[in-house]
Automatic annotation (TrEMBL):
GO biological process: heme A biosynthetic process
Cofactors named for this entry: heme b
Pfam families associated with the record: COX15-CtaA (PF02628)
Topology term for the membrane: Multi-pass membrane protein
GO cellular component labels: plasma membrane
Catalytic activity: Fe(II)-heme o + 2 A + H2O = Fe(II)-heme a + 2 AH2
Organism in which the protein naturally occurs: Roseiterribacter gracilis
Protein name: Heme A synthase
Length: 340
């Protein structure tokens, strides 16, 4: 790999790391209930926080008209408001910085013709996803500014899934530029199907994790392995029609997330075992994924038992992203000529 493609790869990996950090900041923002603290949408002007007491009073007055203040935080002091404001401001600022980190080097590499043939359009696609993510973020926040003190858990899941799509696409493109991906062998093709299934199940588990977070369903039961006195919560089919329990019944949503997590863990461990006899990159990513999935289940259990502390909830989400990245790399390596 020449110096120019290497620079492109490093740029994309740095951008992916920023997206990862953005998702963790987003988790902290959600867990501290800070996401609705900024009720205005001024992307450029809000890159700087309020710089005077008068400006702080103005934005605080705007927040006082929000459902979250009236129904949850009535009586909050300006100092308390500044704490939750910080996380939402940092979350938005980081999004702007990611846009700059993607755009400026991209233009430079384009002018220098440093981007390998066939990769310009996929990288442009990342810009499109980034712009869409900003709109989805605004759409999500808007759901908590009308008549409810929290955002829609459906929109929250959409926001998280899009962030993960950007992360996965970025590291996939970076890996593809660093080393072409030839056709898989018969042996690795079978295992690749297993890896794609594990990736898909993990993605679904993350969606239910977002539902659990958005509904604060992780607080409904703080016991494990039982939910109360049984494996299945007694109220799991309280809502009608029955299917809606899986997306809106708090107890059932937590139960579904647990069940999906167990299945994902078993599938990834089995995948890792099958990868042991293959090439070193495949074996390495399989083992990394196995360790991360066991850690993920342990973090999930600890999060529930400790009543969802901010740091542990954020760590749980961060590890899920790392696991998704490991499975992405495993799928890639299973399609290379080295995976024999």
């Amino acid at each position: 790999m020449t110096e120019r493609p290497r620079a492109v790869v490093l740029w994309l990996l740095f951008a992916a790391a920023m997206v990862f950090a953005m998702a963790v900041i987003g988790a902290v923002t959600r867990l501290t209930e800070s996401g609705l603290s900024i009720v205005e949408w001024k992307p450029v002007a809000q890159m700087l926080p309020p710089l005077s007491h008068a400006e702080w009073e103005r934005v605080f007055a705007l927040y006082k008209d929000s459902p979250q203040y009236r129904l949850v935080n009535a009586g909050m002091t300006l100092a308390d408001f500044q704490q939750i404001f910080f996380w939402e401001w940092l979350h938005r600022l980081w999004g702007h910085l990611i846009g700059i980190v993607y755009a400026v080097p991209f233009v430079w590499f384009l002018l220098k013709r440093a981007i390998p043939r066939g990769w310009t359009r996929p990288i442009l696609g990342l810009f499109g996803l980034g712009l869409l993510q900003g709109l989805v973020g605004a759409f999500m926040v808007a759901s908590g500014l009308v008549d409810r003190p929290s955002v829609s858990h459906y929109r929250l899941a959409m926001h998280l899934v899009l962030a993960l799509a950007i992360f996965v696409a970025t590291i996939w493109i970076a890996r593809g530029i660093s080393s072409p991906r030839p056709n898989a062998t018969t042996q690795t093709l079978r295992l690749r199907g297993h890896a794609i299934a594990a990736f898909t199940l993990l993605a679904i588990t993350i969606v239910w994790g977002a539902f659990t977070a958005g509904l604060r369903a992780g607080l409904v039961y703080d016991t494990w392995p039982l939910m109360g006195l049984s494996l299945v919560p007694s109220e799991w089919l309280d809502l009608a029609p029955a299917w809606i329990n899986f997306v809106e019944n708090h107890a059932t949503v937590q139960f579904t997330h647990r069940l999906l997590a167990y299945c994902t863990c078993l599938l990834v461990i089995a995948l890792s075992a099958r990868a042991i006899g293959l090439a070193r990159p495949v074996k390495r990513w399989g083992l990394i994924a196995a360790h991360l999935v066991v850690l993920q289940v342990a973090l999930g259990v600890a999060t529930v038992l400790s009543h969802v502390p901010v740091w542990l909830g954020a760590l749980h989400q961060a590890n899920a992203i790392l696991l998704l990245g490991a499975l992405t790399m495993l799928v890639f390596e299973l399609g290379s000529r080295h995976a024999r």
